[in-house]
Write a structure and sequence with these properties.
With about 160 residues, the protein is mainly α. The chain is built from 4 helices and no strands. Helix 1 packs antiparallel against helix 2, helix 1 packs antiparallel against helix 4 and helix 3 packs antiparallel against helix 4.
Length: about 160
């Protein structure tokens, strides 16, 4: 073969090698970019769950606190001669209870862990049942149950939070 033919063959081999190298480089770059987007998406989801669980933890605590204060106001009103469960709460306290329950309801639905959602909803149902009690004793039983169960809720939230760091 003459030198022109060898030159053409060398050019074709060099161009082919360059095309294959470019293809492999682009393929690997696309894969790495896809992997980094996946990692970013996972990290955003973890951050969202952490923030949601922290807000739920605070909201749940606020709901327990507001209901406890309202329960104590009911006890005080009953001691002063009112019938149990027939006294109106002060507007500010009633609003505190309502807002705290609203926040728990909003944040609990954003939690990914089914167990946490179920436990929070169960304890919030117990907390709501306090308002339906016909006696101080019955109400006190629910308060005690909520007090014990709230520890379980806060522990479950803590376990989930730790798993996200």
């Amino acid at each position: 073969m003459d030198s022109a033919a060898w030159g053409l063959i060398g050019t074709l081999i060099g161009a082919s090698a360059s095309i294959v190298t470019t293809y492999l480089t682009n393929k690997n770059t696309a894969k790495l970019h896809g992997d980094s987007r996946s990692v970013e998406r996972i990290e955003r989801a973890r951050t969202f769950q952490r923030e949601t669980l922290l807000e739920l933890q605070n909201s749940f605590h606020d709901a327990i606190r507001a209901t406890t204060v309202a329960h104590l106001a009911d006890i005080k009103a009953a001691r002063e001669g009112g019938a149990w469960g027939r006294n109106l709460l002060p507007d500010s306290l009633s609003e505190d209870v309502r807002l705290a329950n609203r926040r728990v309801t909003l944040f609990v639905e954003r939690v990914a862990d089914d167990s946490v959602r179920f436990t929070v909803k169960r304890v919030m149902a117990e907390l709501s049942a306090i308002w339906l009690c016909s006696s101080r004793e019955e109400s006190q039983e629910f308060m005690e149950r909520v007090s014990l169960d709230s520890v379980v809720v806060l522990e479950e939230i803590g376990v989930n939070l730790r798993s996200l760091y």
